[in-house]
Amino acid sequence: MTDMSTRPASPTLDEVAVLAGVSRATVSRVINDSPRVSPEAREAVQAAVAELRYVPNRMARSLVTRRTDTIALVLNEPNTQVFSDPFFASIVRGLSATLADTDLNLVLLTARDEREQEKVGRYARQGHVDGVILMSLHSQDPLPDILAVAGVPLVLCGRPFDGREVAYVDADNSGGAVVATEHLLGTGRRRIATVTGPLDMIAGVDRYAGWRQALTAAGVEPDPALVAEGDFTEAGGRRAMEELLARAPDLDGVFVASDPMAAGALRALRAAGRRVPEDVAVVGFDDAAVAETTDPPLTTVAQPLADMTPLLTELLMRQIDGVAGPAESRICQTHLVRRASA
Amino acid sequence: MTDMSTRPASPTLDEVAVLAGVSRATVSRVINDSPRVSPEAREAVQAAVAELRYVPNRMARSLVTRRTDTIALVLNEPNTQVFSDPFFASIVRGLSATLADTDLNLVLLTARDEREQEKVGRYARQGHVDGVILMSLHSQDPLPDILAVAGVPLVLCGRPFDGREVAYVDADNSGGAVVATEHLLGTGRRRIATVTGPLDMIAGVDRYAGWRQALTAAGVEPDPALVAEGDFTEAGGRRAMEELLARAPDLDGVFVASDPMAAGALRALRAAGRRVPEDVAVVGFDDAAVAETTDPPLTTVAQPLADMTPLLTELLMRQIDGVAGPAESRICQTHLVRRASA
DNA sequence: GTGAAAGCGCTAACAA
DNA sequence: TTGTTAGCGCTTTCAC
């Protein structure tokens, strides 16, 4: 077991400076794309950098600039199953795509219990990241407070449950549900059920609220028998739909609060011998805005992910740069997508 | 738009020292749990730390210690769908559980294309992390070379395709497949099929090899008609099983290379009117080693995740501490689990 | 356009 | 046990 603790010491700025025949300051200027460098000096430095395979030491740089050029996406969720949530995957993909052209790095942090939340909080406060995008899917979450106290720039992905003063970006969930329900109403349906999301998630609550709102506005009294709570999964959607069919066999339409659940609901409907959409019309809410979901409902409300991810980083950067107003937030419009086969 | 770029300047070690009436060095010692501090000094410092809400500046510390106390789990995978892979989720969960008791942080990095791989490589080389655990599920991956050249400690999660000199931890995939196939052989079956994983993933290749090996050892010639390639998903497993049933209706057993695929295979078998296990016996390979999978096969080979995650961090830490032999690797034993209903 | 010099906040000898 | 001192590698005034 030889002692290998002597890792190939990476070259420093000084060594580059010596090799290039200039001062440290000049090398630094070249590294940082300062315009105040002569072409000759620039070339000499670049050659030296290439020869030495020089990579700036981030710690040294961050110590003085107070920037790490990395932001964290924190996933605050006790359930490991979130990873399989298409919405989560889409956000990750969208964020890294947004940052691909920049020199910002994205790291994912997970926090499954209070200890891990503390750890994430510490990580952020210690200065590892410039800011945090937080996805906390369920109601209670201490992280916003931890980070706020520490003054770490923060944007929530999803409207917070309490009306707290914090920046966030969310889709217009209730608006989307209203549109979906109005679409069903517009085809003459009146016994419109809903398979809700989990009611301890804001997206579940808001979509349910939208369903109620649209019905009420149309003079239809929301019937508790027409409401079944799902869990955003296909299996849960199927179960909820079966429940609804047992409780209210006369339903003629259903707004399903997520696309996987809609796929499950469709299976339940077909298993029960109901025809779709002739007999029962289905509108789903597509978190991932993916067209090629397995067994999709005929019409869906698309989550505006393409709008959300750039906004998340933009709002965060504004805070980091210190040019953000208090708790600047945004709601992105959702829109109905009618499938060809509808 | 007021200028808020003046974030609440966090207190420094000096301020703590002044408040506690000691020197910086003493504060540093207390922070780092040095035993060479008097109880009184320790208390005074701790009080000051609490009062000032002092949090050490990681950049300054790392600059001198050359440690960041964070390791990265890099997910090198073009397909976003990996997130829904139970194996991946289990590894993440296992790693953060392993690190929960330590002061090491875990960050997830994703790399979907060459640009993102470069970015991840840069991130690591710049010194943001002490080491990298790399999950590269498909064959070609430039990251090991990038990191190796830069001297960044690296452990692969999964045996590399080429026989390269690099540390890795993997399950005994071929051994597990052998055990599974032998189990089927032991019940007197001879027409044993297999639903393989993707053959551009090492786990797929190794499990397929184990199936061949067990058959050959038992004097049974592997029949190409009894092989169908799946993609580790339930839908893929169902498709592959249907293919097998069409091609070789006389099969009397099947080794399915993942649990989700096994669930799909079971559905295909039932849809075809086959009885399980009387008619066709099924053994699945359970990557997540989760007992409560939907619709599980009767008998499974369990992936030894509980062994793998501690080993991954252990091997990585040994490299970081410079006490690792060249490319130290480990294979973890898999084992057959017979379900009660079997 | 370039260099000299002063730190950023911390740790780690080395003295005391 | 404690304090003093010298950096870690970089950016950034400020002179030149």
From TrEMBL, chains A, B:
GO MF assignments:
DNA-binding transcription factor activity; transcription cis-regulatory region binding
Matching InterPro entries: HTH_LacI (IPR000843), LacI/GalR-like_sensor (IPR046335), Lambda_DNA-bd_dom_sf (IPR010982), Peripla_BP_I (IPR028082)
The record's section on Gene3D superfamilies has: 3.40.50.2300, lambda repressor-like DNA-binding domains (1.10.260.40)
Presence of keyword ATP-binding: no
- Looking at the record, the residues that make up the HTH lacI-type domain are 11-65
User: SMART domains this protein is in?
Assistant: HTH_LACI
Matching entries from Pfam families are given as: LacI, Peripla_BP_3
Task: Provide the alphabetized UniProt keywords.
Answer: DNA-binding, Transcription, Transcription regulation
What PROSITE patterns does this protein's entry cite? HTH_LACI_1, HTH_LACI_2
The protein's matches in PANTHER family, at most eight in alphabetical order, are given as: HTH-TYPE TRANSCRIPTIONAL REGULATOR GALS, LACI-RELATED TRANSCRIPTIONAL REPRESSOR
Q: What is this protein called?
A: HTH-type transcriptional regulator celR
Which organism was this protein described from?
Answer: Modestobacter italicus (strain DSM 44449 / CECT 9708 / BC 501)
